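Hey, I was hoping to borrow your eyes for a little while. No rush at all, and the record is pasted right below:
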Amino acid sequence: MPPLSFRVPPPALDPAAPAASPRLRQRASLGLLMAALTVCMARADEAEPANADPPPRRPPTSVETELAARADQALAKAWGTPAQEAANFLAHEWPRHALARLHGRPPTSTAQELEQARGVVQGFVDTLEKGPGWPRPAPIRLPFAESAIAIDGRLDEPAWRNALATTASYEYGSRDPAADADTVWRLAWDERSLYAAFDCADAEIVAPTLPRDADVWNYDCIEIFLLPALEPPDYWELVVSPTGAVFDALHRKKLKGWGPERTDLERSLEGLRFAVGKRPAGGPGYVIEIAVPFDQLPGRTAAPAKPGERLSIMLARFDRTAAAFKTYSFVPLLSWGHNIWNLVPAELTR
């Protein structure tokens, strides 16, 4: 059974392929769900013939009931931690039936059913037990841009020199800084916009030209999640590639389950500005510079942003090559960017 940090193999490099639906995108990009489905589908080709005798059934073994008890304990401790996303999934959606099976509900099951249940539950336990010790993102203070920022992909304005900047990158599901993700992440703001810049080293850029809201996330790209003041359920997801492809969607968070409850692709970030450029220090790679209007955030009005306002944010980068597909964030991130319990609290300062 793969752990819950199992990553789905990258899809074939076929820019002509149709874009996945938002729901399929949620399914296809989740380590948790794919790990569980990997087990549940592992023996799909072993179905018994229609006239075969029913397979024998047995109650769970002591090892299986002990695993169920361990899952219960991990679940209880995961609430309020970055593992709450996984806890919601196990407690409220179909994986709860795997846990019930190991508890002896129903009293007996086939060996295959119990094997599948063990794999699903073990995968959740591996992630849930990380929650209490997973580093909580420290609050960040976003500097005010005292001079204008031209969205041109150059990053040569004085405001960028005074922006919040970090070079730390972490693979999804890891607490250790990644050695192979040369990325500079920057953030700033003014009364009208939140500014983000991604300076990404990349010797092999794989980013086809795609229509709006296509599967941009399958290739080299950056990603931003924006949630006003950690007040669910509505938040924006923005994905931009080094060829200028854009995916943006307003999600409503499922608070008793996994991932978004709904995804609105009809709305776009009105007034969004971005530009792609070359790295300031030279070398292979790209820069993506973005301005997101504050009045597009759920619950916001057209009033100018002020110091002291708060929001929650996650910055991510996807790095695609012919041989691998890696996902990075600017802080340790358990599971994925839709995990609002792992977003970084940010305060506007001046």
Q: What stands out?
A: The first helix runs from residue 22 to 28. DSSP finds seven helices and 16 strands in the chain. The CA atoms of residues 233 and 253 lie 5 Å apart.
